[in-house]
Amino acid sequence: MRYAILLMGAPYSQQASHSALRFAHALVARGHRLEAIFFYHDGVQNAARLAAPPQDEPHLVDAWADLSREHGVALQVCIAAALRRGLLDEREAARHGKEGSSLEAPFELTGLGQLIDLGSRCDRLVTFGP
Amino acid sequence: MHDHDENSPRDLLVILRHGPHGSSWLREGLDAALVAAAFGQSVSLLFMGEGAAALVPGQQPGPLGQKGTAATLEMLEMYDIETLLVEEQALSPLGLAADDLMLEVEVVSTGALSGVLSAHRLVLTF
């Protein structure tokens, strides 16, 4: 089946991100197609380039990026939710006159329309939130 | 907007479970509903629990600088979001009756909730 995940929990504050990551790996291990993770609400913090968790904790930002590169999973971040919370790619940083960008690649800023599109074309859209 | 057979499932149900102040859940949930409607999907809203507080009339943005959601709720009709539901159990704890609310909403009993869920292809909960 074709799956997508909607993640709305902040990393490390709640279980949601860790559970979503495990669910994502379980999906691809079972042979399902995971189209995308859509990061919304506080879930956008999962895309923070400057996150530097202690070495004995899972590095969620890197884990999402690895998942994307290994299995072709798109990492889509709601632009409105991201900008409010200090996450900008280079283009948005330039547009808003900020020094440096804070969004890790291959996360990409996109709109809520992408979430609706995922909901339309995937067999399942599974939400993880606090 | 496309026509829908009475028996075919509607596209999207957005469940709103948070009050209009104190967090951005309600506003971000409404944003998702508006975008879906703008994309031509048939969207229903279900206010549950504290989410019913969004329907209290006369709300102002308030001193905390949060924008509030009353103005957004008033735009729903313009987006063709006409199916507005409220969980029956949500009203009395908040001291509300259906007639008090700022919009015309259909009261749904707890027993009827599963039918509402299954009548929609996609459910997003905020």
Automatic annotation (TrEMBL), chain A:
One of its GO terms (molecular function) is sulfur carrier activity. It comes from Halomonas aestuarii. It comes from the Bacteria. This is Sulfurtransferase TusD. Keywords: Cytoplasm, Transferase. GO terms for cellular component: sulfurtransferase complex. PANTHER family: PROTEIN YCHN, SULFURTRANSFERASE TUSD. Coiled coil: none annotated. SUPFAM superfamilies: DsrEFH-like. Its main location: cytoplasm. It is found in: Cytoplasm. Pfam families: DsrE. The lineage of its organism: Bacteria, Pseudomonadati, Pseudomonadota, Gammaproteobacteria, Oceanospirillales. Belongs to the DsrE/TusD family. GO terms for biological process: tRNA wobble position uridine thiolation. The keyword Cytoplasm applies.
UniProtKB/TrEMBL annotation, chain B:
InterPro entries: DsrEFH-like (IPR027396), Sulphur_relay_DsrE/F-like (IPR003787), Sulphur_relay_TusC/DsrF (IPR017462). The keyword Transferase applies. The keyword Transcription regulation does not apply. SUPFAM superfamilies: DsrEFH-like (SSF75169). It comes from the Bacteria. Gene3D superfamilies: DsrEFH-like (3.40.1260.10). GO terms for molecular function: transferase activity. Pfam families: DsrE. Keywords: Transferase. Belongs to the DsrF/TusC family. It comes from Halomonas aestuarii. This is Sulfurtransferase TusC.
